[in-house]
Write a structure and sequence with these properties.
Layout (H helix, E strand, L loop, with lengths): L28 E10 L13 E8 L4 E6 L12 E7 L7 E6 L6
Antiparallel strand pairs: 1-2, 1-4, 2-3, 4-5
Amino acid sequence: MCKALLHYPKVRCPNDGSDRFDWCAVSGRGTVFSYIVVHRAFHAAFMPDLPYVVAVVELEEGVRLMSNVIGVDHGDVRVGMPVHLTWDDASGPYPLPKFTPLKSDSK
């Protein structure tokens, strides 16, 4: 096991081919690597959220994941914006990871 961090879970590590994995805690802090503002919902359930931000967030540990940036006007989101993890419990029994701007970066 090489200790490489991976997201999303895979069958084998792309770094060393191992099929042995462990979960680990991460800081929850990261930066917006890339993003789009969605103005047209692909499903009716998302219409109340329009417009919303879909972003690739790079965690401090180097792992990137796709999520939403919430708690900020979509026009204020930018590449490099510091964000931190929060959980959306409204999604039922499986909370979704979302990100909000760090207080020091909010306007």
